[in-house]
Amino acid sequence: MATESSESEEEGKISGGNEKLILDDDLREMGKNAAWSVSSCKPGNGVNTLRDDNLETYWQSDGLQPHLINIQFQKKVRLQLVALYVDFKLDESYTPSKISVRAGDGFHNLKEVKSVELVKPSGWVSVSLSGTDPRETFVNTFMLQIAMLSNHLNGRDTHIRQIKVYGPRPNPIPRQPFQFTSTEFLAYSTLR
Amino acid sequence: MESLLVNSVEKNLTQFMFSNAIFLCERLLADFPSEVNLQLLARCYLSNGQPYSAYYILKGSKTPQSRYLFALSCFKLDLLGEAEAALLSTVEQQVIPGGAAGHYLLGLIYRYAGRKNSSVEQFRIALSCDPLCWEAYAQLCSLGVAEEASTVFGNVAAQRLQKTHVPQRINFSEGETKDQLIDSDKASKDISVWQTEHVPGENQQDLKVKQLGAEIPPDTDNQRNASSHTNGWDLNTPSPVLPQVLDVPPPMLYKNMRRPEVEGLMSVHGEPRKKFVCEEESSEAPEESRRRRSARIAAKRKIPMFHHSPSESNGVPSLSSMIGKCRIQSSKEATTSGQSINDTGSSVDDEQNSNPRGSSLDPFSLMSGISEMLNLLKILGDGHRSLHMYNCQEALLIYQKLSEKQYNTHWVLMQVGKAYVELQDYFSADSVFTLAHQKYPYALEGMDTYSTVLYHLKEEMRLGYLAQELIAIDRLSPESCANGRCASGNYYSLRKDHEAALKMFRRAIQLNERFTYAHTLCGHELAALEDFEDAERCYRKALSIDTRHYNAWYGLGMTYIHQEKFEFAQHQFQLALQINPRSSVIMCYFGIALHESKRNDEALKMMEKAIVADARNPISKYFKANILANLGDYHKALKVLEELKDSAPQESSVHALLGKIYKQVKLYDKAVLNFGIALDLNPSTSDAVKIKACMERLIVPDELETEEDL
Fold it and tell me: What is the similarity comment for this entry (chain A) (predicted)?
């Protein structure tokens, strides 16, 4: 499901990253339907840089830790994966190190869903939101918050170059319990 | 110098040396400004793809040929109102300039403006004027109002073609040319002069003139001759002698022939545009319009016609002369027409002279050629019509009747491919399209459908390759680029990159505003992105261009289902079914919409219809089982699904649904078995989660039981 980022033996540690973001076919980017906000930013490096598909621009925070990125949806959505583009080689002490992903209905009842530690990442880093239980593959929530708890080399502020949030694709056939898998069914299932 | 320049320009045009032609034409126009030369320049501009230049120079011209060219330029510039005004004369009730081509153009204008009935009328007239105007028939088919091919391309058409193409000139004097010129001269003379002419052909003119009510006492001689000639037009015409046709393009004659039929309709002031007032080929001179008018006038009186021998048709005498004479209106126009008549003479001369080149001199072989052509057109017309009525099986059978050579032409192969697509037989369609593409890699018609076929078959690589090929063919031509963009759009859509696909389709639309399918595909992509409002807009745009594009109705229905507006959805599917009553996919979704609106009986009936319509469509059975399960009729549902399972063993959703139903009827073993199989068949992640969740809950009751037992 996730990318081929190498996981070290300790749980929750991710090192390295990928040049390109490689995903499953049945994932769909959900960020367009969301309202994005950040806890603080330096002028010129605001929240837009997180969603501009440009890896040269980055968001730079400007306040106390933890730095937060808030993603709010209008209705409950199922989310599976968060992908961040960070680069230690470029950002050094601005590169986040400990990241906590929280979910909830709003700011008042966020609960941590996943916590990871990055070790000198460079490229796309995927954080899966699934639990061990198959029933916990998705996080069904109104709001997601990504908290940068600490940075590499104890830096104060953080740089994030791009963020994407993924969930499952809905069934293209409306009002059906299951999706079709075989070519034959799919060929007959729509007119084009 | 003038004729030298004219000849050079014509030669350049035939050899596609457009810039040279334009240059020479400008010189010509500078020294010899005249309407005809202006038309020539306009032709040069139009050939060179400069409709705006042609538009400006022809603005305000009144002569029919100029009006036709002007209307064409307006049409290319999308100035429909002006084009229409140019083709319809308001000053005098003249017939449409340009003949069949003019009617066809007018039909297109009406169609683009959304005036369906008028356009249908125009296309019908165009077709009756010139049965080889296939495009008019194709337009009628796509509007859904085409008549049977056998009527359209039948005997009537044969006669028309005979009249048109069989050379009918008997020269009573030395040379044809001379004749024409003589007649032209005569034509330009005053009305009174005609009395002195007694060339046999003239008698008919006299007759016409007489019929025009001109105050010219007919010669008794003439009268007699006239009547004999009139008789000659009767069905029992004796001789196959080709009567003299004095510089009259054959179409005229046929028109005259047609007149008697529509006698009632015709009048001097009658609506020139009614049927049978068709000017056939666009003739090059202003003469034509006058000829036509007087011919129309002539037809007011009974001119018996409808003889079947080809020779008779051109009994109409030199209409030009007749017209010239009968120009009761303006003798001064006659003088201006004098020069044009000369030109006409020369151009018609060319036409006539080229006739022998084009057709065999033997009228009988020409007739057999005509009947052969019409037979071919009958088959093609039938097939085309069936395809547009979505009567695809029949269309396929019809096309089989063609000779192998004709069958393997690009157009026919595209039709066959399309028929397979409409039958949802994508494999056969694929083989046909592949063959066609290999044979004719340059031909772009229908490649958008080919890309759809590859999309349905999930052939990513081939689709990508096709897209590349198409765009590489000609980056500038809208046709190729639009099709190429469509193919690339389908490619991205297959890879689920809907944004990129949307961009491609939008680009295709930019290249060709009236590319209905591109609009529909845009709508599909927007629907996939869940932007239903914009999707709706796209679909409606597609429908505004072509109301019979049932894919767009289907798309609208689907967006409404997604938005849970089931009543609306039903309406859309109904409309789609009206256009294509055999599509099982539409019936399936119609059934879903009905089911969601709680009209369950109708829903089930619709599903039955869908199953009957296409036995190979597994979706209809699946939907039916789902509906039955929702209604609680588990046993029937199970039956349907078990059958389906046998015919489609690789489909995860079938097993998943089976598992679900078995769970409902408490056959837990079977349920678990089916869920297991479903999971093995690679469902999507969310489905896998669902199935696993169902399985968990199944096992728990068992455990509880065993615990209790213990």
Answer: Belongs to the APC10 family.
Mind listing the domains of chain A with CATH numbers? Answer: 13-169 (2.60.120.260)
pLDDT surpasses 90 at B362: no
pLDDT at A38 (0 to 100): 94
Chain B residues in contact with A134 by the CB 8 A cut-off are 688-689, 692-693
pLDDT at B173 over 80: no
User: Measured between alpha carbons, how far is residue B536 from residues A192, B420, B509 in Å?
Assistant: 15, 28, 16
For tokens 């303006």, the residue is B330
The residue ranges of DSSP E strands in B184-239, in sequence order, are none
Percent of the residues in chain B that have a pLDDT greater than 70, as a whole number = 69
- Which chain B positions have a beta carbon within 8 Å of A138's beta carbon? 686, 689
- Are B635 and B651 contacting, i.e. CB atoms less than 8 angstroms apart? no
**Least reliable range by pLDDT among B9-23, B85-99, B328-342, B629-643:** B328-342
Contact assignment for A169 to B424 by CB distance below 8 Å: no
Q: What is the model's pLDDT at position B160?
A: 81
pLDDT band with cut points at 50, 70 and 90 for residue B97: low
Partner residue facing B684 (CB), from A26, A175, A184: A26
How many A/B residue pairs have CB atoms within 8 Å?
115
Task: Give, in order, the Cα–Cα distances in Å from B300 to each of B56, B259, B431.
Answer: 38, 7, 57
The answer on pLDDT for B682 being more than 80 is yes
What count of Cα atoms within 13 Å lies in the side-chain half-sphere of residue B47?
Answer: 19
Per the CB < 8 Å rule, is B686 touching A138? yes
Q: Which of A78, A180, A191 sits opposite B585 (nearest CB)?
A: A191
Tokens of B498: 């809907």
Is the ipTM of this structure higher than 0.90? no
Phi, psi values for residue B185, rounded to 5° = -60, -45
CA gap B328, B660 in Å, rounded: 89
pLDDT at B418: 93
| Closest Cβ opposite residue A185 in set B528, B596, B619 | B619
Write the residue in B452, B521, B648 that is nearest to A185 by C-beta.
B648
Q: Does an H or E element contain A147, and which?
A: strand A139-151
Cβ distance of B653 and A190 shorter than 8 Å:
no
Length of chain A: 192
HSE (side-chain half, CA atoms, 13 Å) at A115:
6
- Considering only CB atoms, B618 lies closest to which of A168, A175, A184, namely A184
Of B424, B678, B683, the CB nearest to A188: B424
Tell me the three state secondary structure of residue A142: strand
User: Closest chain B residue to A177 measured between Cα atoms?
Assistant: B657
SS3 content of chain A, % helix, strand, coil (to 5): 15, 45, 40
A187:B424 CB<8 A: yes
What are A62-114's pLDDT values in tens digits?
999 899 999 999 999 999 999 999 999 998 899 999 999 999 999 999 999 99
Distance from the Cα of residue B310 to its chain's centroid: 30
Distance CA(B701)–CA(B400), nearest Å, equals: 62
pLDDT band at B131 (very low <50, low <70, confident <90, very high): confident
Interface test with A, best of B653, B657, B664, B679 (most A CBs within 10 A): B653
**B653 vs A179: CB contact, 8 Å cut-off?**
yes
Select from B494, B689, B696 the residue whose CB has the most chain A CBs within 10 Å, as the one to mutate to test that interface. Answer: B689
The tens digit of pLDDT for each residue in A17-71 reads 777 778 887 888 899 889 999 999 999 999 999 999 999 999 999 999 899 999 9
> Could you read off the pLDDT of B392-450 as tens digits, one per residue?
999 999 999 998 888 999 999 999 999 999 998 999 999 999 999 999 988 888 889 99
Task: Report the 10 Å Cβ neighbour count for B442.
Answer: 9
B657:A186 CB<8 A:
no
A74 contact B CB<8A: no
